[in-house]
Known about the structure:
alpha/beta, nine-stranded mixed sheet, eight-stranded mixed sheet, 10 helices, 23% strand, elongated
Amino acid sequence: MFITVLGRQPKISLAELESVYGASNITPLSDQLALINTKTLELNHLGGTIKAGQIIIESLLDHLSNLPPGKITLGFSDYSPKATAKSAQMQALKLKSVLKRHGRSVRIVPNNSSAALSSAASHHNQLGEKTNHIEIISYQKYTALSIGTQNITAYAKRDQARPARDAFVGMLPPKLAQILINLATGPETSGHLLDPFCGTGTILQEALLMGFSVYGTDLSEKMISYSKKNLDWLAFKLARTTLSRNFCRHDGSEATHPATAGVRSVSEKELSCELEAGDATNFKWKQPIDFIVSETYLGQPFSAPPSDIKLKEVQFTTKSIILAFLKNIHPQLKPGTPLALAIPAWRRPDQTFSHLNIVDEIKKLGYNVHQFKHATSAQLLYYRESQVVARQIIVLRKI
């Protein structure tokens, strides 16, 4: 059993966990935490989970005393309602004192301003990731030992260091791409994933890292070329050896993904990566298609909330494209095929959001809209405070 620390938008994090581990295995503990009844948890593939720790039943001191020889780096994060930075620091110092009496050398990671260590502090001190680098996660009666923290360094590299980026079409965060993939694939760890609005290839990139074969199409040849550059760059970086720059081919043929450390048995699989230019409203995709994950057309970017007239115009355009895509692809999918889509919503001057409200029309096209136990549809809205165009997440299944 594991305890997880949820991301900035915890309801989206809960929906992701529910998809992967099942609603009955998720117990929300607070706005920040959830308990997961599972034997294993793969933190690197959860975009919405900041930290995770395995619940321990045995004595904490016994566990720490049995660590391998060498200096111990110790962090203490207490998420209990009344915990403070001072109380958490005192707990860490008590443990240090006991361990010193057992002849162990201990360095404490300080709780400078909060009862819980920041994800940056945990990550940079490799807590839960390196031998004798320990983080204790505490919440009321629960005590867990960290298995790690989101790798913010790797996310930044996969986002900012890619050779082809285009701010005008939007830059999907890798974390959100992972969430969308998990919402569609659930517990599955292999299969063929299609992104029909692939843009610069962020979803394809994350899906490859998670062990899926990918197929990307986009109306723009420029975006296809950007995706190809980015996926070839990814393959080259992961291989760390001399590697063909033509991993993700634009001619329809397949290629073997390079061996990669720390991802879901990718080294044991032959993954295909294919890119084609095509209009999602009339394109005929190659088979098989097991999952569809995409950030659909979001319309033009805005630096301030648009006028009512402009909003109606962009809503009409985006709605028409999304519905035309869903109508076009429906007969090409086998029954039960899941789709996880990010569609646009727009911030208004009063800080509320205006939505497309197309659920009824989607149902008429032959799709069921998935309802989550731990999050409502309205809560699946991904945005940052400075953003005008938000992403409304919907999960569908072909009837």
